[in-house]
Amino acid sequence: MSYYADFAPGSGRRFPRAAFTSDAPRIDLNGVWRFHLSPTIAAAPEGMHDPGFDDSGWDELAVPSHWQLRGHGAPAYTNMLYPFPLDPPFPPDENPTGDYRREFEVPESWDGMGAVLRFEGVDSCFKAWLNGHELGFSTGSRLPTEFDVGEVLRPGRNVLAVRVHQWSAGSYLEDQDMWWLSGIFRDVQLIARPPGALDDFFVHAGYDHVTGRGTLRVDTTVPATLTVEELGLRDVPADREHVLDGVEPWSAEIPRLYDAVLATEGERVRLRIGFRTVTVEDGLLKVNGKRVLFRGVNRHEWHPRDGRALSEATMREDILLMKRHNINAVRTSHYPPHPRFLELCDELGLWVIDECDLETHGFHDVDWRGNPSADPRWREAYLDRIRRMVERDKNHPSVIMWSLGNESGAGDNLRAMAEWARSRDPGRPVHYEHDRDSRYVDVYSRMYPPVDEVEQIGRRAEKPLDDAEADAHRRGLPFILCEYAHAMGNGPGGLSEYQELFERHPRCQGGFVWEWIDHGIAHPELGYAYGGDFGEELHDGNFVTDGLLFPDRTPSPGLIEYKKVIEPVRITIGDTIVIENRYDFRDLSHLAFTWRLEEEGVTVAEGVLDVRDGRAPLPRLPATSGETWLTVRAVLAADEPWASAGHEVAWSQALVRPAVRRTTAPHRRSPEDLGTFDPVTGRLVSLGGLPVDGPRLDLWRAPTDNDIGMFESVEREWRAAGLHRVRHRLLGVSRDGGELVVRTRVAPAAHDRAMLATYRWSTEEDRLQLVLEVEPIGDWEDLPLPRLGLRMALPGWISRVEWFGRGPGEAYADSRRAARIGRFAMTVDEMQTPYVRPQENGNRADVRWATLTGEKGGLRIAGDPTFDLTVRRWTSEDLDAAKHLTDLVPGDKVYVNLDIAQNGLGTASCGPGVLPQYRLLARPASLTVAFSRVDA
Ligand code: GAL
């Protein structure tokens, strides 16, 4: 069988071992290589491995990179579907094949040493030749491969040739929900192996939380000595158990590392050791004797121009962003990350679930027929993958669990992986979500269950398994959500309901939001491309853009919300201020607590709180007359490696003085004195000379990805009900005292249900006041409305918005914890949230008043008491029709929505929909707003 269609994962490779750097010489083989792409294997050039081959006509390609992102071939996105027939282990004949060549010099000083050629990641299958000698082949795209090359290496010029196939038997094991991208996408190195070099080592650094002692032993392949200066260990035998008093343990919160040196006859290795012990006991997952709570995310490696070929700067940026948003855990979905990422996790502090490069999800579509997980012919490939992950990453304190992979059904090959991992490394529990009965895992893990089910699991009262023994085992396990809260588009909604359960039930040890970053590809015409934008035959559209970060790593509102919901310090403002520590290990001495008093959003006093034993007296507050809020913030008192002093960790607000309700003055003037109304339709057409398309009832929003949903789709119901195409019929214009009353019936074609909308216009001093009354008629049942409120349009020169209400970011019914009451100002453009696929966004909640202005003045809108506000340069229909941000073109108007409410967001793009309490049902409702002209 051809190697690329072989069940065997590789040949000619060295045994897997830890990733480490030492003082042994190495040659970096990253950089510019010669490259040639052929559409099939048959078309690939012959003899390319021959050192004398003439590659002068070839292109150049950077290593590491993906060829599809450097002008060769095209990316393709599928979630579950394999983009080739299910015909294992055969790849299709149309198998793009990239040939790589480069020359390099080896100094004379390497003479007498062995050498290893190391590839950190090649997608999906490759064969390598050095100086014309075939070294072997390998699969396992996100796993390292090493070849012994000492025999064939020579001083001076050497020629390395690598043939990479996009598809291989290995592709059947790599059906992760992501772009299919090929090539040598991680580093390539040549590492000298001096005589007496250390092949491999395994650091065992435990912490006994009862005695405070550390134990340290480093198993090595050749005799080695260990030095840890700080602990008084100097050149001691490495493989002896050293018991160390007074060790400071490692945790994600306090990532204490000890520098060490491991020395053999041949080389010296610098280590960073973290002491920690991971156990599952009393049904809980504990680190250093304490239950830990994961505030996690799933992280794919992603960069909008480089795909999965990440720079160290990008890896660091990811971790800094996580730490700054209170995230303490990462699942490396769904493959081991670049090894440097884990070093940074050790250093900066994150709990890591290291997940193996394995997914066979596409077999789900054929009822799991032929699933490799249950086919013994694939056993060796499965074991190969877990070995290469565990051996590479075993020395990282941050890695606290091994995950077998993702969505690969069930089968004995997975069980074999679990058994191997446990026997090689008893110090880490094993995770795998698709083992539904949790028979061979140490943690019960689920994705996207609704809150009520999580609550049952929290009480260990979940639905029993048929097999009593299996049930007892699973019921005794700790529980995590390896995925929840699908962050696709606008959302996720409903984070806090999960968090409350994690905090209430010790068994619920937190979760990992799906996912960290949108995998949008930077595109010259489309902004960011997603599935289908490269002409793929099969694709899953924008399902690939479902992250808490936009592709350029700007935090989305979802991340800001998550930060707030998971904050590790809870501040409650009452008669006193109570500060609750929700860290697992850290005290609060690294935080300073500040307060600020704002009247109508303007700071009137501020200071620092004196917190003792988790309490601080309320500061003495000056008298105010307008609506007044007290904000208390927990900020870093000093710089941390991941943020500067002053960085906000947590906050809370309390209303100190409510707004004084306006007392409506008698109507002295008629509405027509302040505004012009269309005599036929009764619509306002100008206000103090400012042209307006007067406000009228609006029910529609551009459906979010969560409205569109995966299983339950509220969008489908909305369209079926015609909520995107309602018409307004005038019932009458009349006078009621000083009021101008316009009555309308608002309804879509082909239905008898409607909304009666009555607009009552009156004046109040120089303000034109509008009371909207809405009455649903006919059978609306439980159909939630997208939104309920008013839409109007203003001239396009309106460019700036200032408001007093929640902000600065957008907020929706079930995603509003992060929006605080204050006074904010932004341009209209800044108010838009750039979801990669355009959809409803930018709602500002609980707005008391807003001014919308431009060079010619503008409009002030005051709520009685509040309204929700959206301002944009296109309509909801334009948003709905747009496929990419570049489809949104400003026109000559600015559209303004003043809402009573909108439906919540939920997370139905993959998971449960909007919780009942956040559904906007059709009920009689009213909204009061007053308009006044703002002069230029
Ligand atoms: C999960 C899967 C992830 C991703 C997610 C939806 O089922 O594990 O890889 O596909 O759904 O975005």
TrEMBL record:
**Keywords in alphabetical order:** Glycosidase, Hydrolase
GO molecular function, a single term: carbohydrate binding
GO BP: any one term: lactose catabolic process
Give the Enzyme Commission number: 3.2.1.23
Gene3D superfamilies, per the entry: 2.70.98.10, Galactose-binding domain-like, Glycosidases, Immunoglobulins
* GO CC entries: beta-galactosidase complex
Q: What class of enzyme is it?
A: hydrolase
Stretches assigned to the Beta galactosidase small chain/ domain: 673-932
Family, similarity comment: Belongs to the glycosyl hydrolase 2 family.
**Name under which the protein is recorded:** Beta-galactosidase
